[in-house]
Write a structure and sequence with these properties.
It is a single chain. This protein has nine helices and eleven strands. With about 350 residues, the chain is an alpha/beta fold. The strands form three sheets. Strands 3, 4, 5, 10 and 11 form a five-stranded parallel beta sheet that branches.
Length: about 350
Amino acid sequence: MTSNSSNQEQHDHDSYPLSTHPNDGKSIYGRRDVVGYAGKPPTVHWPGGAKVALNLVLNYEEGAENCLLHGDGESEKLLSEIVGAGAIAGQRHANMESLYDYGSRSGFWRLHELLLRKNVPCTVFAVGMALERNPTAATAMIEAGWEVASHGYRWWDYQNVSEDVEREHIRRTVQIHKDLLGGVRPVGMYQGKPNVNTRRLVVEEGGFLYDSDSYADDLPYWTREYGDDDHNKNKPHLIIPYTLSENDMRFASPNGFSNAEQFTTYLKDSLDYLVEEGRRGSPKMMTVGLHCRLVGRPGRAKGLEEFLDYAKSLESDVWICRRDQIASHWYQHHYPDDLKSSL
């Protein structure tokens, strides 16, 4: 800390004793960075001169949600057709269970057929417990050429889960991927409902190229806050931000999407705006979040199909890709200048 900053802090404390905090005025603090690229993002050259890298993420969660049958103390309450549902302590919720089962039994296969028919790749955020319950779906993901990233072992809120349990869950889900996917481990991680320790545990595991537990930017970015050992504390870790806005979860939230047309229009508007930014010299990425039990319903899948047709009509302006491909591009072309990429 410089003497000037110390003097300023003392002045603020003396002048505003009831509201001064040690983090006042800081841009980077507590592993937050509120400035980022500061309006000057890197010059990105996506493959083929694309203006936008478009990534579809299919969340595969069904069979790993809260349920007494899974050893939990309450039923699931989130992201279903029962908007505003509450968890039922000590009891099963029959309707919630069947709504989730729809995703793995029907919704997944509808989306699988759609993406294959449109020849569109995707990244799956697969929860380990859910993947393990449906090896046929796991095989279909690999045969489709999709990236299968990790969505943790359980579809839990990890806010108050102990480090030891979360560390074991990460290790366990990596092994499930290897067992079900021909020895292939996940290179991406999205815990989804993480805590402040999650990223450190992901880096500590050692095999992930990126994580997506961030919503902070329209481009990937690096952090050096997590070294992998005492001799390499400044090793950069790649973050590829996810989205909760271009996401079918808004079908299951108050004031969200009511029908497929609203979903499609919002996605088209987002893509159009980003393409225009790219044409002005600032290419970005766009993620679309999908869930088997939500957009897997036929009336919503129709809207997704319309968006896919539109995105493909933009031809070379849009690179439809997997998340691991974005990671590989960033390692090759945007690795920190003072270090040499391992890819």
